Amino acid sequence: MVQRIRSALGGGFEALGLRDDAAVLAVPGTASPLVASVDSVVEGVHFDLALSSVTDVGWKALMSALSDLAAMGASPLGALVALCVPDLVVGADTAVGVMEGVAEAAAAAGCPVAGGDVSESDALVVSVTVLGTVASGAPVARSGASAGDVLFVTGACGGSAAGLRQLRSGPGVGVVENVRRHRRPVARLAEGRLAQAQGAHAMIDVSDGLALDLHRLADASGIGFALDAVPVAEGASLEEALGGGEDYELLMAVGAEGAEALASAFEVAGLAAPLRIGVAGATAATRTLEGRPLGRLGWQHGGDHPTG
Amino acid sequence: MVQRIRSALGGGFEALGLRDDAAVLAVPGTASPLVASVDSVVEGVHFDLALSSVTDVGWKALMSALSDLAAMGASPLGALVALCVPDLVVGADTAVGVMEGVAEAAAAAGCPVAGGDVSESDALVVSVTVLGTVASGAPVARSGASAGDVLFVTGACGGSAAGLRQLRSGPGVGVVENVRRHRRPVARLAEGRLAQAQGAHAMIDVSDGLALDLHRLADASGIGFALDAVPVAEGASLEEALGGGEDYELLMAVGAEGAEALASAFEVAGLAAPLRIGVAGATAATRTLEGRPLGRLGWQHGGDHPTG
Q1: Selected residue with higher pLDDT from B110 and B26
Q2: ipTM above 0.85, yes or no
Q3: Nearest to A259 by CA among A100, A120, A145, A98
Q4: Measured between beta carbons, which residues in chain A are less than 8 angstroms from residue B127?
């Protein structure tokens, strides 16, 4: 479907969640382009109000949108929030709760909420548009990786999926930190900015699963990859780390000569060291974990079906 | 509810469909601010697929968002579209149809669609974010009108409401042009730009009804008004012109000394002459049409109730 929509829109529609995490718009009279992204979360599809509060939903809606800016190396200018609630009178508490969560995340990320819109709808839908810029140079695309690049991830994966599993299993099960990762993820804005400033070749955020998002980066760049390690969050399984999604860690391809400098820059900035997971290869068809083919594990959108 | 949401968000949330048509964001390193607005349209609330095609829905969703830019005097840089469709497989034709309408409106308005997102949801929801800038000077707010200003509207009102009434009455009834106005409204971008360049004091677009939107401009500016004429679209009633909404004409307050120059500038640009409807008054409580108090006729959002 996404291909049909792109074809309906002609060449103008460059960023429907596939090509890059965010759209890049030139602004007349300025050198630095605008980076913009929109994401919707829908009750029953993206969240379950039995497992997360409406405030958590608002937090996560803004952070997942900001994660797209992080993956371009952009800093947020502001956000706009379009809220659909089932009933404007009965749903007032819901709307206010969601916006409180948005406000908490906005304060944490330094992203003012500049505008919004509230409508009635059958389902609770939160659509967040975020706008940002890069300080200098170009935003980082998915497509810039080349053979020999070192692949890093900013943190262990699978925590969010493990947290969701724990919530479904009932109270007291598993690692508390993973429940927080599921309900209150944090966009890696500082890490993304630093990687952009250090000349990272390509980035993507881990929203649908480390394996699937790495395949997408590899597709866009025309490369293969050989992973030798996958950092798994405590309490999570390898499958959750590869296919769980919603970790919002950043996956980075960095030139081999710049890998050391990136790690140093992270250390100087007080950020956790990026975790080396493997290297990019020249043969696009060769994509492995510890020597074995790695499938496209993860959450597929838009009528695509998992092939992994 | 909107007040509670604004209070949850503190001072940062300046443009929740009330204060101005669009948010204004400063961009570091540039003099000209970014103008941004988001609008959602929801099946069963804002449109009826028995009366409009999905392509019409897409057209109108983009144009109504662009109308918010027009009301600030801004030119569009681009749009992002978040689409929620009831089923990603069955709904694929719907999604493509909506995006074709968006693409047609985007081409007509010169606003590239730069990004988007497609999700599943119980209801069809189209959320459009538009971004724009003004060539020089500041965007036009709702709040700048003062006593003695001349009030103009860019065209006759009520056509969209009359068109909706005609569609509900069945085929062959009424003025065909009004059906087009209902299904395929046009944002007054050129008119808004010109009014901004000519120093219009305040603007708002007629989205919820000429009377209600004029009251909003008057509230924001702390003025009253005396209308001596309301231009009614052919086939529409006076009530439809005052309270029908969705005309997307611009309502402008212009200094008395600049009114002549505005009309000339419109003529030179080949635009239809702005229609003088009255003047702004110093007493905020005095708001009249032909000497009689004019109520807040129009479509009220967010749990407010009509008082007119």
Answers
A1: B110
A2: no
A3: A145
A4: 38, 40, 82, 117, 125, 127
